[in-house]
Amino acid sequence: MDKPFAITLDVGTSRANKTGSWRTERAVYVERQPPCNQACPAGENIQGWLYAAEEGPGADGRGYERAWRTIMADNPFPAIMGRVCYHPCETACNREIVDEAVGINSVERFLGDEAIRQGWTVSVEAPPTGKRVLVVGAGPAGLSAAYHLAMLGHDVTVVDSAPLTGGMMRFGIPAYRLPRDVLDAEVQRIRDLGVHFHLGATVTDLDETIRDGGYDATFLAVGAQVGKRAYLPAGSVSHVLDAVTMLRGLEEGEAPMLGRRVAVYGGGNAAMDAARTARRLGADEAVVIYRRTRDRMPAHEGEVREAQEEGVLFRWLTTITQVDEGSLTVERMELDQSGFPHPTGEFDTLSADALVLALGQDTDLSLLEGMDDIAVRDGVVTVDHELMTGRPGVFAGGDAVPHERSVTVAVGHGRRAARAIDDWLADRAPEPVPHRELADFAMLNTWYYEDAPHQQRSMLEAVRRQSTFDEVVLGLDETTALYEARRCMSCGNCFSCDNCVGVCPDNAVRRLGPPGEYLIDLDYCKGCGLCVAECPAGAIAMVPEEI
Amino acid sequence: MTTVDLKLYQVGTFAAGNRLLPLEDRTVQAHPDRSNSITSGHRACQGCGEVLGARYVLDAAMRATGGDLVAVNATGCLEVFSTPYPESSWQLPWLHSLFGNAPAVASGVAAALRATGRGHTRVVGQAGDGGTVDIGFGALSGMFERNDDVLFVCYDNEGYMNTGVQRSGATPGGARTANTKAIGPEPGNAFGQGKNMPRIAMAHEIPYVATATVADLHDLERKVEKAMTFHGARYLHVLVPCPLGWGSASKDTILLARLAQRSGIFPVFESEGGEVTAVTPIRRRVPVEDYLRPQRRYSHLFGAHPRPDVVARIQAGADRSIARYGLLADSSEK
Ligand SMILES: Cc1cc2nc3c(=O)[nH]c(=O)nc-3n(C[C@H](O)[C@H](O)[C@H](O)COP(=O)(O)OP(=O)(O)OC[C@H]3O[C@@H](n4cnc5c(N)ncnc54)[C@H](O)[C@@H]3O)c2cc1C
Ligand SMILES: Cc1ncc(C[n+]2csc(CCOP(=O)(O)OP(=O)(O)O)c2C)c(N)n1
Ligand code: SF4
Ligand code: SF4
Ligand SMILES: [Mg+2]
């Protein structure tokens, strides 16, 4: 023994003492569902693409491209989305509680535009399946389905009665909100995948088209094309037209004659588009007539605000009772307890050279005649959870099925239907979607995020907007887009801040190397829960240990 | 002032690291090669703030000195849980002598190193609040007076935790400890007693004095690094919540340190040569009640027979330190 005086044992490290045995709960990394993802009708992994976008040009110079490709895995229209989507993701965004929601939509638009500028493309990796799929309708639902089906290796044919693709994205949404070169660029990518388009061809008998074409499966995405007409007693010379006809006519090159004073009847987005378009076509006065109050208007808040900024006038709590040449008779309404409008018997006269009806759209499903196994209720096609109609192999989505109507919902239907069709063609049960717990605000530790308000998209000057169809909302530039992306708190998912590595009193959190990859060393984790409490993103959970 | 320049990095700014930040802007704790001065297997309680604070301080000091560092430790939890014979958790030269003599031993080690031509090796002395403000007080004051080249760190958990949570000169008014019971008309520790060690250190006009908590890692590491740029006596007072002694959940250790700062109860500042040179302004101020409620040592102030008068007294103390250090000066939240 050559030990010093009074020393009997060799020095040992405390690492021999496996304090993990004290534990009754262990920390585990989780991937929770961010509220934005949960709210996205197109099923985008928003947190995932913001994570990539945050890297910006980044170490490898490809953060934006990775972000764009993450969007493209679910949605082929980032640049369109960034302009027309009503962004329910932002309404759900947890950052709203800290300061202001992340400007998800602006960043998406920046990425979509960047892809167009840089010429990023996608290609089909899957081997050809030899299956032929018919898509009826080249609106967002049909195009999204065609894109996903093509990516899965199917041979896709899209048929549309219109001379150009896009559906309501082209023939409804005005160019000042969605410039046509953007629309064309994003549709071109789908063409480049080898999808066949038969434009200017109306399907009148779906059964026959499927049989004659020898299609293995079909996606029906005919939308709702027919402007609703209300019965209004009208003088013979009164000028009444519907919003979709007006907007479509404009797109086809025939500007409607509206006169100096235009009244628009309805409270939805089509009404806002009709009124704003009327202003651009030279009307001195465009007034929206709606039977309820502003807060009950179905139109998106941003659209109403922009219309007001452009000088569109509003008459709330008003219905039209009579239309004559140059004037309208209107009646004031009152809301009851439940918010339902009732007539008051107080009448008024308004001068108007033209009346545009924007009362919603009906479907034209005459192509389904004779297909009795496909049920139609309230003018829309009945589908099951997989979006399949009563006829095996015939699926439907978008405005033609019972659901909220938007481009984003239509795109989401196209994606879901494409996956369901792929499963159906392979005679395979759909893969169960793993349930992810919602990343609730209470699970975050937002102390760690610096406060920063969101970058407003600059607006074209209102005056200029009224007389042109130039784009109204401008995109973010590179630095502001990056800044905005970095406001994301990465709810429920690790963003690699190393806080867990820092706060563990027992050095039990190891970094494995690549960002975001950590391991909890259970030999030493005492289960104190500090990493969970101090994880900014709520990406760690405590689970009871089996004792 | 002590705020971090935020540039464009809006995520994880206050966290240990961030994949978007250049390595040099991340904390030492986020570095893959941090020294882990006190390694796994120590016997500190679950969620112990003291062991966390010690690793934060010593890893930063190791980095600042290129690993040329010796630590001298007083008796207390930090010593007991790290070195049950023959095991040690320390991954740097470490010396323990007695409860009351750590500042004197640290002074001696610094003198010996200098005398043997190894003056480049730096010395950190460390102790709990008991070892610092009570039994080690005279030795520490001497170390300050002589301006010995030692960074002395007090890990303040506001009591004698190692021996079963007794009162120290750093135990706050109203807090229950084993010998200041929550009974009688003035439950818990008496008000108006105890010692404010950072101010006493400042009164010695030593080169550097700073306070910090385990809740603000960037700030704590920066102060250690700065302290190591000075020679002579330096003092760092770190608030380290103790789940056992405070009766708090082990997961709340950092939260409580943060609330102590946000409520003004624990002012975070720096001083050079006896003058306050910088304060960490309060971001999102909270009432002291938010800090007190999660701790069982204050539970007698709430419960069935609440003592709003005592809470008000604690609040008044916090308000006084907010005014004294100008903790709201840089903040819009008054
Ligand atoms: C004016 C207006 C503005 C809008 N603004 C927005 C907005 O800003 N954001 C938003 O999210 N949503 C908006 N919407 C709603 C959105 O446009 C629709 O919900 C969406 O386009 C529906 O997509 P879809 O593919 O189901 O149908 P559609 O877009 O209507 O496309 C259906 C396609 O099928 C074709 N078709 C129909 N029948 C046949 C047939 N028998 N044979 C061949 N082809 C056929 C049609 O020609 C059309 O091209 C707006 C709607 C309108 C009317
Ligand atoms: C001279 C002497 N008196 C009493 C003790 C018993 N003792 C050991 S640690 C300790 C209290 C330590 O308190 P503190 O310094 O605050 O450290 P903590 O354990 O709280 O971290 C006491 C009283 C001792 N070791 N030596
Ligand atoms: S902060 Fe980011 S992850 Fe969280 S909801 Fe908002 S966009 Fe989604
Ligand atoms: S008693 Fe307090 S200071 Fe001591 S090991 Fe436990 S938590 Fe840490
Ligand atoms: Mg103590």
TrEMBL record, chain A:
Keywords: Iron, Iron-sulfur, Metal-binding
Top-level taxon of the source organism: Bacteria
One Gene Ontology term of the molecular function aspect: metal ion binding
Gene3D superfamilies attached to this UniProt entry: 3.30.70.20, Alpha-helical ferredoxin, FAD/NAD(P)-binding domain
Record-annotated 4Fe-4S ferredoxin-type domain positions: 485-515, 516-545
NCBIfam families in UniProt: PRK12771.1
The protein's name: NADPH-dependent glutamate synthase beta chain
From TrEMBL, chain B:
Keywords linked to the UniProt accession: Oxidoreductase, Pyruvate
InterPro entries in the cross-refs: PorB-like (IPR051479), THDP-binding (IPR029061), TPP_enzyme_TPP-bd (IPR011766)
Residue ranges of domain Thiamine pyrophosphate enzyme TPP-binding in the record: 75-238
Protein name: Pyruvate ferredoxin oxidoreductase beta subunit
Example of a GO MF term: magnesium ion binding
Highest taxon of source: Bacteria
Pfam family, one: TPP_enzyme_C
Naturally occurring in which organism (per UniProt): Nocardioides szechwanensis
Signal peptide positions (record): none
